[in-house]
Amino acid sequence: MDSLADMFERKVKRLAVHKHRRLKKEKRFKWFHAVLILLLIGILTSGILIIVWYHQGYNWNYLSDSNGRKSYTDAKGNTALQGIDVSTFQGDIDWQSVKNDGIDFVMIRAAFRGYETGKLMPDDNFEKNISAANSVGLHTGVYVFSQALTSQEAEEEAELTLGMIQNYQVDFPVALDVEDILGNEARTSSLSSQDRTEIVLAFLKTIRDAGYTPMIYSSKEFAEGSLILRELRPYKFWLAMYEEQPDFQHSFQMWQYSKTGHVEGIEGNVDMDLSFLNF
Length: 279
Known about the structure:
Layout: H1 4-55, E1 63-66, E2 69-72, E3 81-86, H2 95-100, E4 105-113, E5 120-122, H3 126-135, E6 139-145, H4 151-165, E7 174-177, H5 193-209, E8 214-219, H6 220-226, E9 236-240, E10 254-261, E11 270-275
Helix pairs in contact: 4-5
C-alpha cells in the first residue's frame, strides 16, 4: 500500500500536469484570439481602403445635369466647383462673363510639346488668359500637354511651366496632360507603361518640390492602358471621361465631363470640369 507521502506526491504531479495543460490551452486560445482580432482588423482596414480607393466618398446619386452642365452637392453640403479648361483654341475670352456664368475655376494651358517635332512651346494666349482669370478672382490652375520621351524632358516641361507661373496666382493644381494622339503617330507611341509612368513622376515631383500641387490629366482608357496607376497614388488625378457619371477605379479629384460645353464669354465649345479638391 502506498504511503501518504507517495499519494500526496502523485496528487501534486497530477495537479501540475493539469495546470500545465490548462495554461497551454489558455495560451493557444489567446494566440488564436489575437490572430482572429488581427485578421478582422485587416479585413476592416482593407474594406475601408477599397471603399475610399474605388469610390472616394463620391455618391453619384447626388450628381445632377441641367442644360448640359453637371453639378454635385452631397448630403454633407460638399459642393463640387464648376470649372473649364482653355487654351489658345478658345481665342479671346471675356473672363468677367465667364465668372458671371457660374464658373469657379479654370485650368489654363501653359505650354505644349509637339507630338511629331518634340518642340516645347508656350501657349500663345497663356499670359493673357492667366492675367485676366486672376483679375476676376477665378481659382486658377495650369496644365502642360506633354510628349516627353524621357524624365529629363518631363523636368524641362515642369521647369518651363514654373517659370511661366511664378508671377501669377496659381491656387489650383499644375497638371501634366498625357493622352493618345488619335489618328496620328506620336513620338511617344512606343513608350512602355513603366517608361510613361517614370516620365510622369519626374514632372509631378518637380512641381511638388517647387511648392505647387501636382496633378496628372488623362482619360480612363489611356490611364488604365498606358500608366502604372498604383505608382501614381500619391498624386492628384484629373479624369477625362465623357459619360453620365465616372467609372474609374483610381482616386480622382477633378473630372472633365464634356468637351462641348458652352459658357458665356467664350465662342464655341469649351471643356467643362467639376472639382472635388475642396472635399
